[in-house]
Structures are given as structure tokens and as C-alpha cells.
Design a protein that fits this description.
Elements lengths: L1 H9 L7 H4 L19 H16 L7 H10 L5
Length: 78
């Protein structure tokens, strides 16, 4: 039984390695590009901060706690 798991591990390909896939590091495919143009300056700042957070943490979506952290990092408070 252990031989089967060893052969599975040996043939594992890490598809998260961007150099193997040919994608430059820091590039993320997005469905909508430049979609922040119609926003107010404050909303643009928030959208760009959220995008930056997602790029740094390699996240496609963020949860409410992460969004709150981004908002607080911009200096907002209750």
C-alpha cells in the first residue's frame, strides 16, 4: 500500500509554479481590466488597494475580514 502512495508523490506536478507554465510572476488573468475608471477617486483607491492585496496574497477573492484589513490599512476607522 505504501508503494502506491510513493509513486503518486513522485509523479506529482506542481501546477502553481508559474515559471513552468510560462506565465510571468505577478501576472494574474482577470476577467475585467481597467474597470476602476468610472469610480470616484476614493473608490478607485479602495479598488486598487484590494487588487494589490489579492496580488500579494495570490487570492482571487477575499473574505470580509480581509476586506476590513485593507480598508483599515488605508486609514479608515469606525
Amino acid at each position: 500500500m505504501s508503494q502506491g502512495s510513493e509513486s503518486t508523490c513522485a509523479s506529482f506536478v506542481d501546477r502553481r509554479n508559474y515559471e513552468v507554465l510560462g506565465n510571468p510572476i505577478g501576472f494574474e488573468r482577470r476577467q475585467f481590466t481597467n474597470s476602476h475608471e468610472e469610480l470616484s477617486s476614493e473608490a478607485q483607491e479602495l479598488a486598487l488597494a484590494i487588487d494589490g492585496y489579492k496580488m500579494r496574497h495570490r487570492r482571487r477573492f477575499i473574505n470580509s475580514e480581509e476586506m476590513l484589513a485593507v480598508i483599515k490599512s488605508l486609514g479608515y476607522h469606525k
